[in-house]
Amino acid sequence: MKQQRLPSPGPGASIVFPELSPIGTRLTARGNVASKPSKTGRITTSADAAKIRSLKTTAMSLASVHEFGDLYVNFMRERKRVFVDQLGWNLPTADDMEFDQYDNPFCRLVAVHEYGEILAGIRLSPTTARVGLHSYMLRDAQLGLLENIPNDVLFFDAPVDATVWEATRVFISDTVSADRRPLIQRALINQMVDTARKQGANSIIGIVPSIYPRWLRRLNLDAVPVGPKFDIDGSRLQAILFNINHSIQ
């Protein structure tokens, strides 16, 4: 997977699926800045385009991490800072990095970064993955292998399908300013969709805050709740499934 330059003037200071707010510039499915002004007053000047040239997205596999210098290590350290240090999740750590059994050669790690700083990330895993007793997070939860996620997390049997991938460990760093957050979100979802499509996926399933389907729909992605709402560490969560065959506008 190669690095791609992606647009980016200004989003915000929330972490883990922050709500989408009105954006200052519009990205196309390829991450280009829209050339036309919109009714909402979106900015599309050359000055704004210059601001986003430093933002990049990268999709890494364990086989390709050596191509990106310290990006992989920085990515795993930012995950530890977000999920362990800030959110207080009880997750394995080593050398200031967070990881678990799903960080294996089957997965793809999607990073939004700027000058080496990790701004946002997602982990993608195929629902056909198998590593010892484990498969992927939602299926393992349903099978009672994960103590922190209820086994009735889905309304149906967890899929085992090469065209369905799972998204986990989604975050946007609190170092991202509020005015940049929407564009970072869009860049992250653009690269996630592009990466999943290249792996043969047409749908993505995952556990997200219950507000998440609403802003996926704003990106022209059809998000459908596929499990009951539940609480973990004060967060209201729900499993969703969304189709990635539509372009992001």
Strand content: 15-25%
Q: Please identify, by name, the CATH architecture.
A: 3-Layer(aba) Sandwich
Unreliable parts: 1-48
Counted up, domains total: 1
Count of DSSP helices? 5
- How many angstroms does the end-to-end distance come to? 23 Å
* CATH fold category name: Aminopeptidase
Secondary structure: helix percent: 10-25%
Q: Considering the protein shown, what is the CATH homologous superfamily?
A: Gcn5-related N-acetyltransferase (GNAT)
Mean pLDDT metric: 79
Structural class: alpha+beta
Q: What's the total count of β strands?
A: 11
Global shape: globular
Task: Explain what you see.
The chain has 249 residues and is of the alpha+beta class. It has a single domain, classed as 3-Layer(aba) Sandwich (Aminopeptidase). Helices cover 21% and strands 24% of the residues. The chain is built from five helices and eleven strands; from the N terminus they run βαβαββββαβαβαβββ. The strands form two sheets. Strands 1, 2, 5, 6, 7, 8, 9, 10 and 11 form a nine-stranded mixed sheet that branches. The chain has a two-stranded antiparallel sheet with strand order 3-4. The longest helix has 18 residues, at 181-198. The protein is globular. The model is unreliable at 1-48 (pLDDT under 50).
